[in-house]
């Protein structure tokens, strides 16, 4: 029996396992790096052990984790849903240490280590698979997808559409992945469908319906749902039967998912068996009613699964992954302090819901510091409703009203996808985002919506100053003896600097207001605020203006704006959407000018590879180095031909946004 369990993961994954452990009476142990010393998962565990090291890499140190378990008296280890869950050597080491391993057996993980060999085993059991090519000359037909033989999360995968570039692409992928690679046909407009399964050591294999995981970026899922809008009962039975055959062919025991590609004609092909309780398991828990972590622990203890077959599907569930990244800028990871994280109307967290509603599994809270080393996922928000349409509407509404301050996220993209006609009709596939650029627009995109939010920020700022005024604090904000001027503020907004001006009458009422774009070169001049007032705005009445809440009547429609100010930044949330406005100084200090040809870091991260040396001549577009942040690699290319004059970074170096990476002298 499991008495005390160490979870070798962090964030919402660890919190999810801890939640079930509390229900069934199992004591918990957390591990943490330097960066996670104040993380929520550390505070929630009964015991916590520091792993020496400042980055997320320490979570992959199996030796440190086993030592931590021994020090705390844990008799079991749960690997989470990261790379350790797929590590056969770590699983064997846990068993050798006399502890219970909550995962697939080491022998099975050894089989699954090679994707190509796994496909061969499954093919022998007569489950459909795509053909595999290991040599460029044997490829028949394009496009093809190059895949590393080991690893997960879509890392290293790339599409090749002609024979001329295949050999170099294979060699490059092999160098980057550090393992053998293979090719298989790349199918356009297919769905990614997975069958979650649980298998015990007594021979029972239970599938839990299917999950639709087709909305992806960089081969990684961001929206999952169950059931799939493309799967009818007959196809579901066929997919589940194939999953059971694959599981038995591999000899799998534990929680996992059998992944397939599905085309429009209903044909499907096995992709891989993922040996973890996957991040999207919450949607399956909603529609099945089962606590999958509890069943996973039961199997690890040698128990028998309590259900004879697949449980019935109750309603529809959709999950989104809220990630610290900027979709509009090549999915660049974001870092910083999460000043506020508030999701409205949440019914429960980290466990199955008793009835339809919103579930939140989050690894962060107000004040959490988001670094560049962990996975970018901040939280998973799940909507469970009687129908798919209701679940999508509920989820989009909750995301729109969520307050996310301090770190760029993919929230607006998620809302636009959930509200997109194609998604609502179930017309999704793995290329959904590539073919629909409109979903990358911010929610707060209308000109009038941005302008009114700027006015709300200015009014809230004035109210805050009046609340702390030591002289004439009883006068209304902006009060003047004569209407000779306007109150003004300058913000750096979504589309650049803007100036906000407004006039108040003797009764403290809004007499006029305006917002205009400002040339950045004007920001060091004293002439701002002297522009003639042009009241080309909607008719607006200030109903209430506090330092955190502003209510405006705009053309007879009342809107409430919540304003959260942190330093010089005002975060404005309203039914129109959210915007961050940084107040600018009228007389900013001059910034140091970068040398001509300087290449600066577009994001914080670690230098992974440096492919050039000082003095080397490079071509335009040539890869100079790569940065790694949040498990993704970001290339830095030469913007033009030239000679590398300076290279102040080296592999393993940590850099911040704006830090100098190289200097290129143009030819």
TrEMBL record:
Record domain Biotin carboxylation: where: 1-438
Cofactor: biotin
Annotated ATP-grasp domain residues: 96-301
InterPro entries: ATP-grasp, BC-like_N, Biotin_BS, Biotin_carboxylase_complex, Biotin_carboxylation_dom, Biotin_COase_C, Biotin_lipoyl, CPAse_ATP-bd
Pfam families xrefs: Biotin_carb_C, Biotin_carb_N, Biotin_lipoyl, BT_MCC_alpha, CPSase_L_D2
Domain of life per record: Bacteria
SMART domains found in the cross-reference section: Biotin_carb_C (SM00878)
Occurrences of domain Lipoyl-binding (ranges): 586-665
CDD domains: biotinyl_domain
Keywords: ATP-binding, Biotin, Ligase, Nucleotide-binding
Coiled-coil portions: none
Protein name: Biotin carboxylase N-terminal domain-containing protein
Protein's organism: Paractinoplanes rhizophilus
